[in-house]
Structures are given as C-alpha cells and as structure tokens.
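Field reference: sequence -> structure
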Amino acid sequence: MQSQAIFLFDIDGVLVEPRGYRAAVQAALQYFTRGMGLQPVHLPGEEDLALFEASRITSEWDMVPLALAALLDELIKANLGARLPPFLWGLNGWKPFRLPARVVYRPAIKAMAGVLQPGVYPAESVLAAARAGHAGLLPYLSKYALLIDLLSDTRDVMGSLTTRIFQHYSLGSQVFQRVYDLPAFVNSPSLLSTLDRPQLEAGLRQRLLELRAAGSLHLAAYTMRPSLPPRRAQVNLRGHAPEAELALEIAGLQELPLIGYGRVSWLAAQHKASPEAYLKPSPVQALAATLAAVHGDEIQALQDGLELYSSGKASPQAQAALGGKQTHLHVFEDTAGGVEAVLRAAQTLRQAGFEVHTHAWGVARQEDKIRALQALGARVLETTEEAVTAALAH
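Structure field:
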C-alpha cells in the first residue's frame, strides 16, 4: 500500500515565537491598570500565560479579559464594599485605595479551566459559571455587573473593549484602522511584526519545502490565530485580521495551506454555527487541515472536514486525498487542545475507512505544557527544530 506523510504545524510556539502576542497581552492589561492608577501592579507572567494555554485557554482574546477578571477579583477583595462601574470604560475613574501585596493568578486560572464547556469560548464559559455562583470562581467580581461587560462578546472588536485594545497593540494602529474601519485611539506599532521570530532555521525550512515540492511530504498550518477567509472565497474582508498570514511570512512558509480562525469562521457562517464548535479541540479544523495539506483547496477541505465529522461520509476529493493510502499524520503543537483535535480527527478518518497513524510532537519548555502534552501521548521536545528533525527521521 502506498504511504504518505502529512505535517500539521501550529503557528504560535511552533512556527514562530509569539513575542508579539505576549507583549500585546501585557500592553492591553497595562492600558486598564494605568487607567485605574495602578502603577506598578503585578500582572501575569510567562508561567501564568503558559498555564492558560496548558488549560486550553489559548486565545489572547480570552486571556486578556480573564486575567483582568482575576486581577479585579483580588482588588475587590482588598477593597471590600467598593463600588465598581458596570462597564469597562468606567474603570478609568475607579482607583482602589488598597492594593494586594501580590496577585497570584494560578488558582484563578485553574478554577477557570474547570468550568470550560465544549463549543463555548472560554470567557463565556467562565462568565456563565461565575454568574451561576460556581464555588471559588471569581467570588468577589461575580457580584458586579462589570463581569458581564468584561467577559461577553470577546470575538467582537466592537462589543469587547479588551479585544479592541489588544488588537491595537498586536496589529498596530494603522493596520487596526484598515482591518476594522474604525478610528484608532491607541497609538502603537504592530507588536506582531516587530517582535515575532521564526522557529525554523532556513536550511530545515528549505528542506521541508523541497520535500513538499517533490510530493513526498504534505504540509499545512493549523492555528487559532485570526486569519483571512479561505483563499478564493468571495467575502467582505472587513474585520478579518491577517495575523496568521503575517506569521507564515515571518516563518518563510507563506505558500502553505492555512486553516486559521478566519477560515473556520467562514465555514461556521455557511452553517449558521459558532466558530468555536469547529475549532481545536474539535476535529473539524484538524480534518480540514489534513485534507488541505494534501490537495491545497482550503474551501473544499473545510467543507469536507465538516461533512466527515457530521456524517462520517467522505467526498470524492477526500477519497482521492486519503483513500488507498497509509497516512502518517504528524502534528506539531505547543498546547494539548491541538493534539487532541488531531487525535479525534484521525479516529474520525479511521471510522470512515481510511488507514491513518498519528504522531504527536510537542514543543514546550514549561512544565504545565509538558505535562498536558505528555498526557495525550505526545513526544515533547524543547524546539521545533528538534521535533521536525525527529519526525523526518521517523
């Protein structure tokens, strides 16, 4: 039987070192703490953000409001009886008179991870659980209407102030205005463009591209990053930030098929569904990335991935891509959710009659991430270079 290999690459932490997103998280949080006169104040560090990711809270659109919620909960605890405004913009005039000695984020993050619901954005899962009085979850902030404004509509730049501020810093003011057709009220360069760094050295990257050109290796990028809709889709691009495309350019892999947030959002809109229902750890995004890696048609891959997941039926294009072949599906991830999605996608494909073998490669150095990846059977290495070299020798 003919054999083929497919490599699916996450972007942040795998193809690029996401320094820009990390800096944008800190800048967005500082925007709010400065408005409250809190300088300095203890903001979440790298270990806290890694714990978010290890806990399957991987989007900064959730991390920023959830970290701010944990901070506000501690501030209210230190200022019992304080009156808070019902909306985030009102925090500009709220100045707590007493600060906690230190804000410890890990207990709050672990409590948030415990209430996540499949197919629901993390911020909305936490909002619903906190309002229902879930024990130990934002016990002080949950009594204030501000919580609703903070954790609602985090995928809507108009509806969420934290997302709007974060996008100013990640995209830069000029790109923000162009993408969203909104005036910029924060002046910032693009932290993604200035700070992100490629994770593959040029020689190994070139080897991957040569193997792809020869037809002996199929490649695709597979990410939660905001992106444009699928190539060839006839849609209005307003509101679609090309963050995944920018990362692939930085990595030198812009020719790869890409299944990012914008592609999945396009698919969800066709079926009047929430994008979260199709994103990692759902197998739909992984199925689409697998098929796109082989034939390159992103629209067809998205549609076929959903059909496989929904009905178990494979289209003629999916049959041509995977049928009659022994497929070795390799995933390179720094978080557990992406690995889980590929494992579930492979199971779906096996149930549809395809022969698929999975190989999970973790790229991580933080203990929380390593443990989460190893729990799913991933072999964890410190760098993408090491993981790709090991996979090529597999």
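Note: The chain has two domains: 2-14+197-392, 19-193.
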